[in-house]
């Protein structure tokens, strides 16, 4: 896909951008191929640098929880999905996406 000289001549910034784009795509593919999760409902999806942002509603699994009982669940809250050592992982972000995660 890329000639060796293209990589050798690229700046650090260009290589980091390329790596982020590859990680972002690998994360997207990993998310697309995993089992759907019943306790989480994806409301919105956005690409982030080196990952994917999901806005999700969640079921906490507590039998007495009123919010979950009524079907509404918790959130929606943003989660960042990314890969660590080749494994898909996620991090809780909150109601708003911080600027450094946009893009
Ligand atoms: Zn709940």
How would you describe this structure to a colleague?
The protein has about 100 residues and is α+β, with helices and mostly antiparallel strands. The chain has one domain. It has 3 helices and 4 strands; from the N terminus they run ααββαββ. Strands 1-2-3-4 form a 4-stranded antiparallel sheet. A hairpin with a 2-residue loop joins β3 and β4. The longest helix is centred in the first third of the chain and has 22 residues. It is elongated. The model has no long low-confidence stretch (mean pLDDT about 90). Bound molecules: zinc ion. The site of zinc ion has 7 residues, from α3.
In short:
The protein has 103 residues and is of the alpha+beta class. The chain contains three helices and four strands, in the order H-H-E-E-H-E-E.
Q: Give the distinct bound molecules.
A: zinc ion
- The average pLDDT value, as a whole number, equals 91
What's the Cα radius of gyration? 17 Å
Could you give the order of strands across the largest sheet? 1-2-3-4
The ordered H/E elements are HHEEHEE
Taking the alpha carbons of the first and last residues, their distance comes to 24 Å
Helical residues, percent: 25-40%
Task: Note the total helix count.
Answer: 3
Report the sheet-strand fraction: 25-35%
Oligomer: single chain
Please report the total strand number as a whole number. 4
Counting structural domains, the number is: 1
Q: Look at the helices and sheets and give the structural class.
A: alpha+beta
């Amino acid at each position: 896909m890329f000639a060796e000289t293209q990589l050798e001549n690229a700046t650090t910034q260009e290589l980091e951008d390329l790596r982020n784009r590859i990680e972002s795509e690998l994360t997207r593919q990993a998310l697309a191929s995993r089992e759907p999760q019943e306790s989480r409902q994806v409301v919105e999806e956005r690409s982030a640098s080196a990952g994917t942002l999901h806005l999700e509603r969640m079921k906490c699994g507590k039998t007495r929880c009123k919010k979950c009982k009524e079907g509404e669940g918790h959130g929606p809250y943003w989660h960042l999905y990314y890969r660590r050592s080749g494994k898909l992982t996620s991090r809780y972000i909150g109601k708003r996406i911080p600027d450094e995660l946009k893009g």
